[in-house]
Amino acid sequence: MRTGFAHPLSHPAIPINTLPVELLSHVFNLSTHAYAELKPDDHHQDSPFNPESVTIPTTLASVSRHWRNVALSTPSIWTSLCITVDDVAYSDGTDIIDMRRLVTHLVRARNLPLDILIDARDPDWDFSESEEYGYELYPNSCEHPFRSKFMTQILDVLFPHLHKWRSLAILTDTWAPMYAAVRRLGSTAAPIPLGAASPTPIGAPLLEKLTLMRCNEFISHAPEFTPRHLKDPVYAPFTALFGEDVDLQLPMNLLPRLRSLTLSGVHVNWSTLSHLLSGSSTAARDHKASYGLQTLELSYHCPDVRPSHDEFHRILRACPDMRKLVIKISGPRSNAEERENGDSEEPISLPLLEEIVLAYNDAGEATKVLSLIHAPSLKTLVIEDGMHPANPVEEDSGCLLAYCGRGFSEDHFYTSAISSGSHGLESLTFQSSSSTKHNPPFPLLEHLTLNRVKACPDPFKDLFQGLPKLRRLSFSHTPIHALEALLPSQLLHDSEVGTIVTVPCPDIDSLQVFGASNDAHHTVGFVMSERTRHGVSNTCNIALHFTSEIPPEALDIMVDMCGNAKFSVAEMYTDLDWEMDDESDDGDPYAPGGAFNDLEFDEFYTQSALLSH
Question: pTM for this one?
Answer without folding.
Answer: 0.83
